[in-house]
């Protein structure tokens, strides 16, 4: 991959190869990344946003894979390289698809124009699938788009990571009487995802509400919709994520 040689250059320039990741993580800034990669010609070899986008295990550069490392943002234009498991598997939902009848008494013509993650999630919500899956008829859409986190800290192994005003994005968040449901939506067959995409919004909204905060992973499949319900056993432990239950549905509408 193009990012392999870029990160090899970064590791060499800042002596990261010699760093003891068992002792502590390694912090690096966007400015340092730019400086190390400034002589590369291709955008994918020097653009910080591209170099730091590692949403699945396979997106990591070779040196990260070899050394069992992953990357997290900790503040605007500052990152930390951590040793450990940064990702969670998204297992195949093997249960038989359930036929779910939409609670709408009319057809949504506009929901079938295009093929975006957002429209599929909106259709599932409008059909009351999200409410039904969560067994909560009080859920309403209240959160969407990008926001900056408050300050919070958490553990990865024995290391404490401090986060301050990192931009997060929730595909949709629903608030009910007793809970807030946050959803990360995909429109592809994801095998795994970086825990950060679920964990940072989870930590963020813990600050703003005393209600239970729930995290779902949602995916439009070829014929229907799959949902994974994750939870964090310890709110301060990045790796305490566990899968609670799954669902696989075909929405039947008018």
Q: Spans with pLDDT under 50 lasting ≥5 residues? A: none
Total E-strand runs? 14
Query: How far apart are the first and last residues' alpha carbons, in Å?
Result: 46 Å
- Residue share in helices? 10-25%
- Assess the beta-strand content as a share of residues: 35-45%
Q: Indicate the structural class.
A: alpha+beta
CA radius of gyration is: 20 Å
**Major sheet details:** 7 strands, mixed
SSE pattern? HEHHHHEEEEHHEEEEEEHEEE
* Domains (count): 2
Q: pLDDT average, as an integer?
A: 94
Tally of DSSP helical segments = 8
Spatial arrangement of strands, main beta sheet: 5-14-13-12-10-9-6
What general outline do the C-alpha atoms trace?
globular
Q: Could you characterize the architecture of this molecule?
A:
With 254 residues, the chain is α+β, with helices and mostly antiparallel strands. The protein is built from eight helices and 14 strands. A seven-stranded mixed β-sheet has the order 5-14-13-12-10-9-6, with helices on both faces. Strand 7 (152-156) and strand 8 (159-163) form a beta hairpin. Helix 1 crosses helix 2 (30-37). The longest helix has 13 residues, at 196-208. The mean pLDDT is 94.
């Amino acid at each position: 991959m193009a990012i392999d040689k870029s990160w090899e250059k970064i590791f060499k320039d800042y002596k990261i190869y010699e760093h003891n990741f068992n002792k502590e993580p390694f912090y690096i800034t966007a400015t340092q990344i730019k400086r190390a990669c400034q002589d590369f010609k291709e955008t994918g070899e020097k653009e910080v946003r591209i170099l730091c986008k590692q949403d699945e295990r396979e997106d990591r550069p070779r040196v990260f894979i070899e050394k069992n490392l992953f990357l997290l943002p900790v503040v605007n234009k500052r990152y930390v390289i951590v040793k450990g498991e940064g990702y969670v598997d998204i297992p195949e939902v093997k249960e038989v698809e359930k036929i779910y009848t939409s609670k709408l008494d009319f057809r949504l013509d506009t929901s079938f124009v295009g093929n975006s993650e957002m429209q599929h999630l909106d259709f599932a919500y409008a059909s009351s699938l999200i409410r039904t899956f969560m067994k909560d008829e009080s859920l309403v859409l209240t959160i969407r788009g990008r926001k900056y986190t408050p300050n919070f800290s958490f553990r990865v192994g024995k290391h404490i990571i401090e986060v301050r005003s990192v931009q997060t994005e929730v595909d949709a968040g629903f608030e009910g009487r007793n809970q807030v449901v946050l959803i990360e939506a995909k429109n592809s067959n994801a095998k795994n995802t970086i825990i950060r995409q679920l964990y940072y919004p989870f930590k963020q909204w813990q600050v703003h509400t005393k209600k239970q905060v729930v995290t779902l992973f949602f995916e439009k499949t070829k014929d229907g919709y799959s949902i994974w319900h994750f939870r964090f056993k310890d709110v301060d432990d990045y790796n305490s994520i566990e899968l609670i239950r799954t669902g696989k549905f075909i929405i039947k509408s008018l």
